[in-house]
Amino acid sequence: MYRITSICTFAVCIAVCTAVAWGQTTPAPAGSILFVDDDGAQCPGALRTIQEAVTKATRGTTILVCPGTYRKTVAIKGHDKDGIRLIALGGQDEVILQGDHTEEDGIRLEEVDSAVVRGFTVRDFGNIPATASQYGWGCGIHLQNANYNTVEQNRISKNDMMGITVEGSGRNIFRYNFMFEIIGNGIGMWGAKSANNFIFQNYAYRNEFGGIYMDNAGPGNIVLDNDFSNNGDRAIYHGNTEGTWIEGNRLSYNAGAQGLTPDGQTESRGIQLAKSNKVTVIDNTIRANAKFDIAWDGVGEITFANNACQTANQTGLCGR
Q1: pTM as predicted
Q2: Is residue 265 exposed (0-12), middle (13-18) or buried (19+ Cβ within 10 Å)?
Q3: Nearest to residue 304, comparing CAs of 275, 284, 276?
Q4: Could you tell me the pLDDT band of residue 22, with boundaries at 50, 70 and 90?
Q5: What's the confidence (pLDDT) of residue 256?
Q6: 13 falls in which pLDDT band (50, 70, 90)?
Q7: Which long-range contacts (CB under 8 A, 24 or more apart) does 248-251 make?
Q8: What mean pLDDT is reported for the chain?
C-alpha cells in the first residue's frame, strides 16, 4: 500500500533533468517538471533543495524528488502555487524530509489549492524536543486555509504533536498515509472551514494520543476505512463538530501511555463523541480498547448502527 516505485531511471533522469534545469532565478513555465536531488547522483543537473524547486514553481508544476535526505521546512504558499504536484521518487523511506525539532512543520500548505503531496517520509519536526515534562508543537504536514489538496502515501513519524494538521481547510483528500510514534495524534483537524474532507485508508499506530483528533471542525467530513490501533488515548476523538460520517474503520488496542490516569487505570476509548450533532457512526469494528470501545456524552443527534464492539458507556451503541 505504502510503497512507491520510481518512475525515473538514471538515464531518463539525466535527459529530463538536464532539460528542465532552469536558471536559478527563472520561474518554471506553467505545467513544467522540475527535478530535485540532494547530491546529484540520481539526477545530475537537478535542483538541490525542495524549497528551491517550490520557489521556482508556478501553477501546475510537477516537482519530482529523487531519493535522499532533505532538511528544513518545505513551504508551499499562495495561489500562484495552485496545482503543484510534489512527488517523491523511490521506495519506502528513500525520500526523507528530516527535521531536528527546531522547525514546526515538515511540509506546509498555506492558501494553496489543488496541490498533491505524495510518497515522502517526514519525521522529527516540531519546535522543541519532547521530554517527560514537556511537549513541543509541530507536525509532519500542515494545511492552513488550503483546499482541494491531496495528501497521500506519506510515512510520518516522531513529530512533536501531529502527523497531519488540518486548520481551516476543506475538501481535501487524505489517503494511504502511515502515521506512527508521534507525540500527539495522527491527524488533527479544527476550524469551521475544515469541512468536507475525505480521510480514507490511513493507518495510525503507536501515537501517544490517538488516531484523529477533530474539534470545532466544519461539517461534512468523512472518516472511512482507516486502521487506528495501539495508540495511547482515543482512536477517534470527535468534539464540538457536526455532520461527520464515520464508517468502516478498525479501531483496536488503544491504551498506551496517555491512557493512564494517576491511579493507574486506563481511560482509552475507540471512539469518543462530545458535544457533537448529526454524526453517523456505522459499520466500524472497535475492540479491546482499554476503557470503552465507544463513549458518547449523550448530546446531539447521533446515529449508531452495526458497530462491532464490546464495551460502551451507554446501551445501544454496539451492535444493531
Answers
A1: 0.90
A2: exposed
A3: 284
A4: very low
A5: 62
A6: very low
A7: 248/224, 248/282, 248/283, 248/284, 249/223, 249/224, 249/225, 249/284, 249/285, 249/286, 250/226, 250/284, 250/285, 250/286, 251/211, 251/284, 251/285, 251/286, 251/287, 251/289, 251/293
A8: 89
